[in-house]
Design brief:
The protein has 99 residues and is mainly alpha-helical. It has 4 helices and 2 strands, in the order H-H-H-H-E-E. Strands 1-2 form a two-stranded antiparallel sheet. The longest helix is centred in the middle third of the chain and has 21 residues.
């Protein structure tokens, strides 16, 4: 089975029950992000994949609860990002120049 945002959200609803406060999904994603940091620090590719997936699963559920599509939101944000000017930090990241 190929998963998608709707199937992931449905599984989560069936498995964990309804979300009463959406901020719990964000807090749980932050825990998973810490676990991703540990996996990255250890250079453990398998765990990097698993922890990244955990984060995407949580965010997929959050987006679905709000009637949003991950693909649509990424596409809109990339249009915005491509229109900005950026200042690279030299470490593979950067920040946009306001103005």
């Amino acid at each position: 089975m190929t998963e998608n945002q709707k199937s992931i959200a449905a599984w989560a609803e069936d498995t964990f029950g309804p979300v009463q406060d959406q901020s719990v999904l964000v807090r749980r994603a932050m825990v998973e992000l810490e676990e991703l940091q540990e996996a990255t620090d250890a250079g453990d590719r398998a765990e990097i994949g698993k922890e990244t997936a955990d984060i995407v699963i949580l965010l997929s559920r959050l987006l679905e609860l709000n009637g949003l599509s991950l693909a649509d939101e990424i596409n809109k944000k990339m249009v915005e990002n491509r229109a900005r000017s950026w200042l690279p930090k030299g470490d593979g990241t950067g920040k946009h120049i306001k103005g």
